[in-house]
Design a protein that fits this description.
2 copies of one chain form a homodimer.
Chain A lengths: L19 H4 L3 E4 L12 E4 L5 E4 L16 E4 L6 H7 L7 H23 L9 H8 L6 H18 L15 H10 L3 H14 L4 E7 L5 E7 L21 H16 L9 E7 L2 H8 L4 H9 L4 H10 L4 H9 L1
Antiparallel strand pairs in A: 1-4, 2-3, 5-6, 5-7
């Protein structure tokens, strides 16, 4: 692999293209010489209505005909609002100390682990999302899967939060999102309660997601630890560490078998719209052990609903499917 | 239920009695009037050899009509730990978070979830056993199991006055370990590797089976090592092989058939708590290996030995049934 110049999009799922999903997680700098881009950039342009519209910025991959001995080194990307967050935290959600811990330190830790585990392997040029898909069904790759999945999930979480400049109208679910939620849930309050209840009930670390399935229905799923919501493997919608019923165990086994048959399916994966990161380090310092409910409430008020809307619309953009296959 | 007065033993598995295992988790104060003991007490007397021997202190249960309120017990070395932390394992700030705050949080949750239920007079261990097979009791199981496990972990750590000879595995422990593992270094490496590989929160345990073999197992989140239900020896959240899924299902079916088996449970000898809040502040995200190393040097091996011996004390089995 020779020189790759990659610009990844931080904050948009405006299409289901692989260039964008993977780009959500990472910047990579190549250890070989010449120019390499190690920061993510988002192109944020404002339309006439004054609402920021997130535009995907992707450059085509340049395939090299000559192999090189460079290895890719993962590093944590810079968030759109990172400077502000470093100064001020993400009020009211988290203090600046927690932000430093759970993004700056944590994402760098994940990046190092990813680099360590992908060097000189076929994974070394893959984006975290691609690594998730490639390793999900391989027990011997569990550690690599974990770090790739955590990298992707944590980035997705932070990318979905409001910046200080976000317009007031994006603080509430936008109409399209509102309508979509009400299609699948009784109303938005019920949906919020549902997510909050799941977050509260989780004993241990994980994420709670709102996803849109390929059939356009919205649904909520929880992933424990480093579980992925993409349906490639473990939906992680419940915790085996606590009592559970035997019938649920059977369902998991069954789903396993189904997934194994769909190993290389690209289409048919759900699109995440938003998620809350309920790993304990996210809320312990600011809220205490029993503060998860308040943390959820503050997270709800910190969502950038414009980004959620962009992802919602993206699922129906079939034109991007072609690009998926090209870039995988 | 009338008035109950309960004194629980903090720091000994000197017998396999239920009173001890149960007493391990927590002290309870009764909301009724008159005297109630809210703190655990340990009776520790020194023999001529000046090795502290942990003596079981239990009182019989008396029935009462009051509801029990769980509260975090005071550890044998708590005053020292609050002042100094547990060097080199943890700072005093982490000790406050991981024991004082956390155990109180667990106690509050336990109280909330057991009030006016048949569980309200049960010790955390008993709640674990009683709820392990009931999906609708998952939250209660979790808190009871965490209460028990966290207390067991802290109870196994050395105090400032521990004699120097307890800083290394005592002979009986060494011998037992070498029966089941190549040597103690191999056991340590094995446990360390498992702890490192755990992605998320959990515990890594050294246990002795009813057949006297030592083995290591990991429990994720609030999993219990007692074999009542979920051994939690692997993480379903990461890729795993289908055959392992089948063996878990198999074990599930076996356990369900043994619903009321009391005997045949393993005895934990020691454990490391690798919930992230245990090491994050002092060691960082990547510091779990160093945390393990410092924990290994913080074990009170005398307590481990006492538990080891206890497994062969069949006379305590009778007391088990009495106290359950």
């Amino acid at each position: 692999m020779g020189k790759r110049q990659c610009l990844f999009l931080v904050s948009s799922f405006a299409s289901k293209s692989r260039a964008i999903k993977p780009g959500l997680s990472f910047s990579r700098s190549l250890s070989s010489a010449t120019v390499s881009k190690s920061g993510l950039s988002t192109s944020l342009s404002y339309s006439a209505s004054g609402r920021p519209r997130i535009v995907p910025v992707a450059q085509s991959f340049i395939t090299k005909s000559t192999k090189s001995s460079s290895r890719s080194v993962y590093s944590a990307p810079k968030l759109e609002n990172q400077d502000d967050y470093l100064e001020n935290g993400i009020p009211p959600l988290m203090s600046k100390e927690t932000f430093k811990l759970s993004w700056v330190d944590y994402q760098e830790y994940l990046a190092k682990e990813l680099t360590k585990r992908t060097q000189d392997t076929r994974f070394s040029s893959m984006t975290p999302f691609n690594i998730v898909v490639a390793t999900a069904l391989h027990a011997d790759q569990a550690a690599l899967f974990n770090f790739a999945s955590l990298t992707h999930n944590n980035h997705f979480f932070f990318d979905s939060l409001r910046g200080v400049d976000a317009p007031a109208e994006t603080t509430q679910p936008l109409q399209a999102v509102y309508d979509a939620i009400e299609d699948s849930f009784t109303n938005i309050e019920e949906f919020k309660t549902h997510m909050s209840g799941i977050a509260e009930a989780m004993c241990g670390n994980g994420y709670v997601w709102l996803l849109q399935n390929p059939k356009k229905k919205l649904y909520v799923a929880a992933t424990y630890n480093a579980g992925t919501p993409y349906g490639v493997e473990h939906a992680q919608d419940f915790d085996f560490n606590s009592p559970f019923s035997r019938s649920r165990l059977t369902n998991v086994a069954q789903r396993q078998r189904q997934l194994l048959d769909r190993e290389d399916a690209i289409e048919g994966k759900p699109m995440p719209l938003l998620c809350i990161n309920v790993w304990q380090h996210m809320y312990l310092n600011d809220y205490g052990f029993d503060g998860k409910a308040q943390y959820f409430e503050n997270w709800w008020n910190s969502i950038d609903w414009l980004k959620v809307e962009a992802r919602l619309n993206a699922v129906s953009a079939t034109a991007f499917r072609a690009r998926d296959r090209q870039l995988l």
